[in-house]
Amino acid sequence: MTGMTLTDPLGPADGAACPVRHWEVPDLAGAAFDPTLGELMREGPVTRIRLPNGEGWAWLVTRYDDVRTVADDPRFSREAVLERPVTRLAPHFVPDRGAVGFLDPPAHTRLRRSVAPALTAKGVERVRDKARLMLDEIVDELVRGGPPADLTAAVLSPFPIAVICEVMGVPAADRHTMHIWTQLILSSAHGKTVSEKAKREMSAYFSDLVALREGSTGEDVASLLGAAVGRGEVTLEEAVGLAVLLQIGGEAVTNNSGQMFYLLLTRPDLLERLRTEPAIRPRAIDEFLRYIPHRSAVGLSRIALQDVEIRGVRIQAGDPVYVSYVAANRDPEVFPDPETIDFSRSPNRHVSFGFGPHYCPGAQLGRLEEELLVDALLDRLPGLRLAVPPEQVPFRKGALIRGPETLPVTW
Questions:
Q1: Lowest mean pLDDT across 95-99, 151-155, 195-199
Q2: Whether the Cβ atoms of residue 87 and residue 50 lie closer than 8 Å to each other
Q3: Residue 275 and residue 136 in contact, taking contact as beta carbons nearer than 8 Å
Q4: 324 CB neighbour count, 10 Å cutoff
Q5: pTM above 0.85, yes or no
Q6: Which of 231, 249, 265, 322 is 20 to 30 A from residue 239's alpha carbon, by CA?
Q7: How many CB atoms lie within 10 A of CB 133?
Q8: First to last CA, the chain
Q9: How far apart are CA 396 and CA 94, in angstroms?
């Protein structure tokens, strides 16, 4: 386990020797890298932070090897966070007991296994043709309407919603409601009460949907969860928590692809390469996934279950720890010249989908959607370009997942 050993009680420095940095987390435009995160990375591989909400401070780990180790080490627990008011970004963070994001193995493994058939490479391939058809219809409508248009509203938002609802087994008539709930849950701009209400309403919806699918033989997530509940393999509460997480995560493609197309439309050299060299598109998408700072600040914390040393710093049992996948993706020891977008980068072992037991279950689906979007928009709209100067593209404020609010384009 690179960079990490059991504590030597006489050797490492403890928290008292490491100042706490207040991280205000500004709203940033484009692919601008958070200046505070950049400073923390330069200050050392292990620092201490205080975020805008919650209580106390937490450790922040930013080096690639250390991030992967903490994310995969059973000495750092997600479940233990339930008992701690950890400093955090969002004001409305209220973990649900039984939610997969706050389970440790083996319970975490058991729950994820129940939906694996829908999210493995084979399961995702089952929806490829349907996803391509849905995207073609969405782009057809965009073309009929003519330029200018908001690419976010016309394509980048409705397509991931349609795909994740298809995978989840959510009827088309309920897609808009799911989108509204997701946007409220993923934003800190509306306040704690509004976000918590949206989460309760989405949870109630999936509770009814999963319960209706008990005994089902369907291949969508709700049916798989209903069948697992019927067999007694997972509880309804666990199934609902997982469904909510997957539904919300499915819309992250909107913001990630928004940042990717913003970069392409402001970098004509990159756009032209992808137009003329379609064979490199999958590799280019991986490089965008590495480069794009996809989230604000950090995600979910972990709690150290025993004393651990990381690069000479003692993390004591009970201390909260965050990892930054955004920082890890810019580690120069792993990614030479990390500030450069390099489509020939190989290997490209980015951690944009996380690492370890909590690796994003929708990673395969997200890649599929990005590939379909790039193919459809670059091939069908060869003259695609921004309709406004780059600095006039508004980016979301108070968003946990970064991306453009609108992306005005013409062709």
A1: 95-99
A2: yes
A3: no
A4: 24
A5: yes
A6: 322
A7: 10
A8: 51
A9: 23
In the 3-class helix/strand/coil scheme, how is the chain assigned residue by residue? CCCEEECCCCCCECHHHCCEEECCCCCCCCCCCCHHHHHHHHHCCEEEEECCECECCEEEECCHHHHHHHHHCCCEECHHHHHCCECECCCCCCCCCCCHHHCCCCHHHHHHHCCHHHHCHHHHHCCHHHHHHHHHHHHHHHHHHCCCEEHHHHHHCHHHHHHHHHHHCCCHHHHHHHHHHHHHHCECCCCHHHHHHHHHHHHHHHHHHHHHCCCCCCCCHHHHHHHHHHCCCCCHHHHHHHHHHHHHHHCHHHHHHHHHHHHHHHCHHHHHHHHHCHHHHHHHHHHHHHHCCCECCCCCCEEECCCEEECCEEECCCCEEEECHHHHCCCCCCCCCCCCCCCCCCCCCCCCCCCHHHCCCCHHHHHHHHHHHHHHHHHHCCCCEECCCHHHCCECCCECECCECCCEEEC
Q: Give the Cβ contact number of residue 235 at 10 Å.
A: 13
pLDDT over 50 (residue 2): no
Judge whether residue 271 has pLDDT over 60.
yes
Place of tokens 């996803």: 131
Average confidence (pLDDT) over 167-179: 96
Least confident of 9-13, 38-42, 92-96, 260-264: 9-13
**Residue in the block written with tokens 């349609």:** 162
User: What does the pLDDT read at residue 208?
Assistant: 97
Contact 43, 109 (CB under 8 A): no
As given in the structure block, the two tokens for residue 60 are 């922040």
Query: Which of 92-101, 183-192, 251-260, 354-363 bottoms out in mean pLDDT, i.e. has the lowest?
Result: 92-101
